[in-house]
Specification:
There is one protein chain. The chain has helices at residues 16-24, 29-32, 122-127, 130-146; strands at 5-12, 38-40, 53-58, 63-72, 76-82, 92-101, 104-112. The protein has 147 residues and is α+β, with helices and mostly antiparallel strands. It has one domain (7-146): Alpha-D-Glucose-1,6-Bisphosphate, Chain A, domain 4. The chain has a seven-stranded antiparallel β-sheet, covered by helices on one side. The longest helix has 17 residues, at 130-146. The chain is globular. The termini are far apart. It comes from [Mycobacterium] crassicus.
Length: 147
Amino acid sequence: MLATVVSASRDIAAPAARIFELIADPAQQPRWDGNENLAEAHAGQRVHAVGDMFTMALTLGVVRENHVVEFEEGRRIAWFPAEPGQQPPGHLWRWELEPLDEAHTRVTHTYDWSQLTDLKRIPRARWTTADRLADSLARLAALAEGS
């Protein structure tokens, strides 16, 4: 049976607030994307609450609207991507941050496609493995630890 929920965790030597800014500001996301799928997001879309939506241009040239469904400042953020003006097809990206102390944070990145309804997206969903999530975590760590 193929896992439809994959995740990876990493301890990062940076405060949770610094790491969260890199995640909650969509303009920063292409800098750490281990899937090499994100091209750019306009500045000024920083997420602040459930119900927020941000747009992202993908490397394939398409745009996604990302609907924020979980949010706790500095701790958790999750969104469902969708084609502009459409309902999300059911795959979720989640980030959870657990401060270990003032200068260290355990970060867990999860991709959940257990509710995916668009069969065309299944090959790409299968391609998104825990190793690719770990790549994003490694890039995120390099940015956060170098700040």
